[in-house]
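Service request form, structural biology core

Requester: graduate student, group of Dr. S.
Request type: structure prediction, single chain
Budget code: on file
Notes: please return the result as structure tokens.

Sequence provided:
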Amino acid sequence: MLRLALRELRNAPGRMVAVLGAIAISVAFLSACMTFLETEQAAVAKAATETVSTSDLVVDAESSDPGQLAAIRAVPGVTAAEPLWSGRLQFRGPEGAGVLRINSVSETPALRWAELTEGSWPLSADQVAVGQATARQHRLKVGAEVAVDDGSDKRRTMIITGIVDQSQSLFSGIQDSGYVSGAYFRSQQAGDPAGADQWPVRYLITTAPGADPGQVMEALRATLPPTAVVATADEVAQQTLLMLSGGVDTYGYLLQGFGAVSLLVGGIMIANTFAILVAQRRRQIGLLRAVGATGGDVRRMVLTEALLVGVVGSVAGVGLGIGLATIGAAVSGSIGNGLALPWLPLVLAAAVGVLVTVVAASVPAARTSRITPLEALRPVDDHRVERRRTMIIGGLASILILAGGAVIGYALTARTGVLLPAIAGAFALGLGIVVAAPVYVPLLVRAVSLVLRRFGPVSRVAAANTLRHPGRAAATCAALMIAVGLVVTLQVGAASVKATTDADAQLRYPVDVTVSAGTEPLPVDLITQVSDVSGISATTTVRQAGGTLTGLSDGPLMVTLAGLGPNAGTVVRDGLEPLASDDVALIGPFTARQLGLAEGDQVSVEVGGRTATYRLAVSRIPEDFMLVVRESALAAVAPKAPIAAVWASASDRSAAQAVSAGVVAAVDQREGVVISGSLAQAAQLNQLIDGLLAGATALLGVAIVIALIGVGNTLGLSVIERERESALLRALGLERRQLRRMLAIEAVVLALVAAAVGVGAGIGFGFLGTTALAREAGMTATVYAISVPQTVFVVAAALLAGAAASVLPGLRAARTPPAAALAAAT
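Core staff response, request fulfilled:
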């Protein structure tokens, strides 16, 4: 059987090209994810643990008493010890403001973990070195001066003395890094009223060659206060990695989940391909059975072919995956630390690829063992067997659909724990839809074919060919409908989640945009700039003053008193009705709960020696610990209250990100100015969801490519199977372009049916996911939305790709002369 399998692969290698491509792409996807994540993990590990990489022992102390350093250096076995301080430093360079994550540079060269690429290390309190990525992003050069804000009352400048090699990765290359001298931190401590000995510090320690680390650690514990933590550098590094591994692991699980989807789609395509191959080789199988081959021999031959193809495809996929991971690591910057190859996971990925190929081929292989010689020599299949198989599939699919629907119904009626049952029910329902494909896909194909028959003989022949093998059409459509369905589910879910959260944000924040400076005057030019932002339809200025809320059980409390002018209704959607007189103050529900206040309570507010009493009305308009009154009421207690805020409304909330970006640009990080409101919340969420959606859609594109390979493979094998028919059609006058068009129509029909089912299922699952997430998050209402342009794009892409998949089979069929096709088919 091995010789027969090898001979078959040598004689007809083209039949297995699509299987090789599908399994190679799937394994390449998994291999690329594993290699890329391992490389990123190594980069994260280096960035997170590099500060202790040059030390042997680490001491974390709650205070930085100078006497501690001398005591550590006096411990026997300690050769060097230096303090390591960490903090943040705000700065402003040529490209705008930023925040440096700074560390102190050790005065002992052996304890310096970073390497300079240019310049020198900082030595004084007014010097700083920055990482390569920071220097490149902010256009900083050695010798340049940057304005810094270290939290003190005065601002100053610092000189950049050096550029430092900076580890980069997708996860660790986000923060700007800087390096300062110990003198900088000592100057900061000197200005701290709490005193220098109240700052926590980490000590980096090296031990003498041959010294016992355990004995040195015990001596350090005996010398230092009980609150000091002494550990080896390796222990600190492992603990740090344990705390930071969650983000990479979660991302890895997400990628591997998409890899599993691509393997599932590839498995369906492989099973379909082998089913077609078995149908094409029925006569050959019958002859083998007639000359003495058993059913087990034939089954082993097919499985051997699958095994050989799986091994070749998986090995090629691993190589391709490593190449893709190398490109990805080069883009993220983590390749600078070297490519990390996880050999065991790569071997497992290849093994999974081989296993999927063999398992997918096992069902068609099992059918070969049940084919008798006489049955195999018949020109057509036994339709009774096909009907019986369809009935079995329909019964199984009905059970899955009913079970999934029941679980979903329970999830949507449950008060808590909605998400997990909804996911389980959706999985069962989706599996039932896929399993039932042989039942409903032929019906849909027949409906499309009825329309096609009106467009000439070529369309009628294409429609008849599509209906000739309903099981094959269903299997081909199943792979594509899974991929399209998942993409549409994500798109509909993303659009619905954005609409739902935006509606919830509008309910919680009745004002679209607020720009506030607290109780300080807002610059006049800023008010004008906010009004001029594209998308802002109306603005109103708000005077604000700081006051003291008296008469509370827990004592007086500082609050902000905001006064709204007559035109406030142009920017506030609702909630202004209670503010009908000067003796009413609006209070937020959170503030009311915190202070134990309720609707209708009387409170007194003192502002600059004047006191006013208000009757409270609970409203969503005020921010936390703010009371909103009429502007005339505020003038009675604070006549000189400055214009400290501007509130605005947006004309089009679908452009939340653009409008919010315009407001941010107008504010330009002015000190003490804060942006808030429902539009800012919506913009942040929309940006996050759009990024996740783009990444997920790109990843699911792999599954779509595999499914379309299956469409092309089905047509290619169909061309081989229909050589005699194609030759007769050519002999009767069918032109080459008409033959190519016929195959293109068949591919488009399959893609159209798959896209229609995928879109329908995707919309349903997207709505289900939105409902489950909204109920799990406790949102008051669920808003369903469909991104029509995105959905249309997915359908159009599927149809165009289906037509493209027919190009190569069409060229092959058109190039074969009728006489040669008739000779090959005899």
